[in-house]
Design a protein that fits this description.
- With about 350 residues, the chain is of the alpha/beta class.
- It folds into two domains: about 180 residues, Adenosylhomocysteinase-like (Rossmann fold, 3-Layer(aba) Sandwich), CATH 3.40.50; about 150 residues, NAD(P)-binding Rossmann-like Domain (Rossmann fold).
- The chain contains 14 helices and 15 strands.
- An eight-stranded mixed β-sheet has the order 9-8-7-10-11-14-13-12, with helices on both faces. A seven-stranded parallel β-sheet has the order 3-2-1-4-5-6-15, sandwiched between helices.
- Strand 13 and strand 14 form a beta hairpin.
- Helix 2 runs parallel beside helix 13, helix 3 packs parallel to helix 4 and helix 7 runs parallel beside helix 9.
- The longest helix is centred in the C-terminal third of the chain and has 20 residues.
- The chain is globular, with a radius of gyration of 20 Å.
- The two termini are about 25 Å apart.
Length: about 350
């Protein structure tokens, strides 16, 4: 898999060559889910700057990707060993948050996610940051058009037949919208719910029925969370989940499906990635509530992540070259640079 991904990451390699003069000899730390595409990004960046890389977490780390990097003499460090770099390429502000706890101030941050931007707004241990999630290429391109196919990749690995299944997506942001679209293309009957009335209207315009949270939980075969909010599904509403339903998380919240709160249920491991919960009703949680696209799937399609990571490289170039303060969206000129490649 790694050699195939390496062959396909054309734009990331071009972006690194394009940014080389600006990034040469700077120190940067990278903390993204360590899967195949991330490994290629890390390898290419290591050729032009002093890079430190750590795991985002264990469950999203692909052993083959880690081995591939180690064969190329790139050491995988702990987060605490990556805090001294001037610049961070971060996800959910994970590394920046650890730096805050250690009293470390960071010059610049490239943040990959919406949840990370919200977290950065509460932190004060960095001088400036660029939100890649606010770009069209990442924020719309990856989140809306790419991420949902990682969900389908994960569901296929469960060896279930999707056409005719009733699917319920909680959260109709860009990721939720993409999940709805991907599920509908497989023949699922898709409904959704969002607390934002405007997003509900957009869902209806897109052809998806909007139902209440309880109705969706009670009548759906496949339930997908995509909110970024912990506790969307917890012990409070677990008992109304349809018998035999499959629960998947596609959001950035670690406990959107709060498996810590299913105290009244007996937990049985069916496979390392399928957990059965039995009580008043029975349902299945995939990947222990971690994002299924990254844990049992191969993540977002390589062509789309190639653009996202190339954009992150060009955003880092902008961060190094320009003076500003606070958090800014990805500048238009950076997106145009990528398109020119």
């Amino acid at each position: 898999m790694m050699e195939w991904i390496n062959e396909k990451m054309v734009l990331t390699k071009k972006a690194c060559r394009y940014a080389e003069d600006s990034l040469k000899n700077i120190e940067a730390s990278l903390c993204f889910p360590l899967e195949y595409k991330t490994a290629v990004l890390a390898y290419e960046l290591s050729k032009i700057l002093k890079l430190k890389i750590c795991r985002f977490d264990d469950v999203t780390t692909k052993p083959e990707a880690e081995k591939w990097l180690m064969e190329r003499k790139i050491e995988i460090l702990e987060k605490e060993d990556c805090l001294t770099s001037a610049y961070y390429l971060d996800c959910v502000a994970s590394l920046t948050g650890v730096a805050k706890k250690r009293g470390i101030f960071v010059d610049g941050v490239i943040e990959l996610t919406r949840s990370g931007v919200k977290r950065l707004e509460k932190l004060d241990n960095y001088r400036r940051a660029i939100s890649v999630d606010d770009s069209v290429i990442k924020g719309l391109g990856e989140n809306r058009f790419g991420t949902g196919w990682g969900l389908i990749d994960a569901l296929f690995r469960l060896n279930i037949y999707l056409p005719g299944k009733k699917a319920f997506v909680i959260g109709f942001g860009r990721v939720g919208e993409g999940c709805c679209d991907a599920l509908s293309r497989t023949g699922c009957i898709v409904r959704t719910f969002d607390v934002d009335e405007m997003r509900c209207a957009i869902a209806e315009y897109s052809g998806f029925e909007v139902v209440g949270l309880e109705e969706g939980l009670n009548t759906s075969d496949i339930i997908v969370t995509a909110t970024g909010v912990n506790g969307v599904i917890s012990g409070k509403n677990a008992r109304i989940i349809k018998e035999g339903a499959i629960l998947c998380n596609m959001g950035a919240g670690r406990y959107e499906i709060d498996v810590r709160d299913f105290g009244g249920y007996r937990r049985t491991e069916i496979t390392p990635f399928i957990m059965k919960y039995s009580g008043e009703n029975t349902f299945y949680v995939i990947a222990d509530g971690n994002p299924v696209n990254l844990t049992i799937g191969n993540g977002t399609a390589v062509e789309i992540m190639d653009r996202t990571f190339a954009l992150a490289v060009l955003s880092l170039k902008y961060l190094v070259e320009r003076e500003f303060s606070g958090i800014i969206p990805t500048p238009d000129e950076v997106e145009k640079e990528l398109l020119s490649l």
